[in-house]
């Protein structure tokens, strides 16, 4: 009998057996997900319902892999779905506040890191662990913002929303993985999430894109989840336009990573790459698959994909196989059912503000409740921490089920000029200092 019991011909509701739970091993060095047996789903997992916990373990979380954090962290391997509707597995890391108020229902936040790479070294489930070797992973820095959410008294789910193969860019499936990670958190026997706990989503850049897919997919894929709000920070509304915008520039590595991943998902794109990319270009895409986000950006800075083609780049991008991919991966497939806060800097050199303008307008016209903060003074990188106090306040209001005043709220006043921002940044600074020194994060009083 398999680890899940004999699942042949059964539904997830008839699942028998118990998933294995591994106790914390403080001195163990984490193994890369691509080599770690924990990530391999047991035989018969495909017959379980999406969100079923297949395996769990306790882990140590550490800042930059070096500074252990005094929090409870549990990782769950769970059953989910890819973009074609086929069963697969993924992992989420649940981080629980050290102090939880008695009788108080803790909200559940799914925080999506900007993984932005194919290398399993960048998966949050690896990068957040103590003794991980993930230099160049953005998730290690985002622990500071995850800690801010934990300090609010929220249980935080940090999913590997790119799946076990690190697929960055495909549509739909990041949302499925996030939503099934939330289901797994609610199903877990090792982290107490109240059935009535309100649920929120938050992510920025690549994490904002993943959060947007979850907000779009939740109404049809997981209508039972009580998702009360989603913060979409600079959510890469049009990856095709972003490719053209960044190719040949300082951040050319980001769209090149997307192309490397999508070639594994779309056979037509893979065929075009093999037919029209020279040996050097194909070797470059292969090397990108093992690089961290920062490593790929540094390696690809200033490189133009046109230099590796046997025809003009625009001719390649105009091919039906490529156009179909870029059309398919664009946000706006469905209308978000929860209210959304969209945060976007006007002077963003990575994500074109006009792409996000169109996304916000489409969401609103289609009936979604949209708060759009279009920051008139900021840029991409600093917009994330500077908007964090706003995101936390907005999520707090959604968890408290306070009503939104209008169907569409649009703001432009720069966060840098808002005194409330600096009050929030002081608290974030205190939390960051505690994370960096490995001290307990004090919960905000109720």
From TrEMBL:
Please give the Pfam families that the UniProt record associates with this protein: LIP (PF03583)
**Which sequence ranges are marked TM in the entry?**
none
> Which superkingdom heads the taxonomic lineage of this protein's source?
Bacteria
Q: Which GO terms describe its molecular function?
A: triacylglycerol lipase activity
Which biological processes are named by the entry's GO terms? lipid catabolic process
- SUPFAM superfamilies registered for this protein in UniProt: alpha/beta-Hydrolases
Q: What is this protein called?
A: Fermentation-respiration switch protein FrsA, has esterase activity, DUF1100 family
């Amino acid at each position: 009998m398999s680890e899940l019991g004999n699942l042949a011909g059964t539904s997830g509701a008839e699942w028998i057996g118990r998933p294995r739970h591994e106790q914390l091993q403080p001195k163990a060095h984490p193994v890369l997900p691509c080599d770690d047996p924990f990530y391999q789903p047991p035989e018969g997992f495909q017959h379980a319902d999406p969100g079923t916990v297949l395996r769990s373990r306790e882990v140590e979380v550490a800042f930059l892999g070096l500074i252990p954090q005094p929090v409870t962290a549990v990782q769950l391997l769970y059953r989910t779905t890819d973009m074609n509707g086929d069963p697969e597995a993924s992992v989420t890391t649940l981080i629980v506040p050290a102090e939880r108020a008695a009788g108080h229902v803790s909200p559940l936040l799914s925080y999506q890191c900007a993984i932005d790479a194919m290398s399993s070294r960048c998966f949050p489930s690896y990068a957040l662990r103590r003794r991980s070797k993930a230099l160049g992973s953005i998730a290690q820095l985002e622990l500071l913002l995850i800690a801010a959410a934990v300090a609010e008294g929220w249980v935080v789910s940090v999913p590997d929303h790119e799946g076990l193969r690190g697929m960055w860019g495909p549509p739909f499936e990041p949302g499925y993985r996030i939503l099934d990670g939330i289901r797994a958190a609610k199903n877990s026997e090792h982290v107490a999430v109240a059935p009535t706990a309100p649920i929120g989503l938050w992510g920025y850049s690549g994490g904002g894109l993943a959060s947007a897919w979850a907000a779009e997919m939740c109404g049809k894929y997981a209508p039972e989840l009580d998702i009360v709000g989603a913060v979409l920070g600079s959510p890469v509304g049009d990856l095709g336009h972003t490719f053209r915008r960044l190719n040949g520039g300082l951040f050319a590595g980001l769209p090149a990573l997307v192309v490397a991943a999508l070639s594994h998902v779309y056979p037509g794109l893979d065929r075009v790459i093999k037919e029209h990319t020279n040996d050097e270009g194909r070797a470059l895409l292969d090397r990108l698959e093992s690089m961290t986000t920062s490593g790929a950006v540094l390696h690809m800075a200033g490189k133009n994909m046109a230099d590796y083609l046997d025809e003009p780049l625009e001719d390649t991008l105009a091919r039906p196989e490529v156009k179909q991919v870029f059309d398919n991966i664009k946000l706006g497939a469905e209308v978000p059912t929860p209210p959304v806060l969209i945060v976007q800097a006007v002077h963003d050199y990575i994500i074109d503000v006009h792409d996000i303008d169109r996304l916000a307008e489409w969401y609103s016209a289609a009936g979604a409740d949209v708060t759009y903060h279009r920051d008139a003074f900021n840029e991409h990188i600093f917009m994330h921490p500077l908007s964090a106090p706003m995101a936390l306040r907005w999520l707090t209001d959604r968890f408290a089920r306070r009503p939104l005043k209008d169907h569409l709220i649009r703001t432009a006043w720069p966060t840098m000029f808002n005194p409330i921002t600096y009050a929030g940044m002081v608290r974030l600074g205190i939390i960051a200092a505690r994370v960096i020194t490995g001290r307990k994060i004090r919960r905000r009083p109720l």
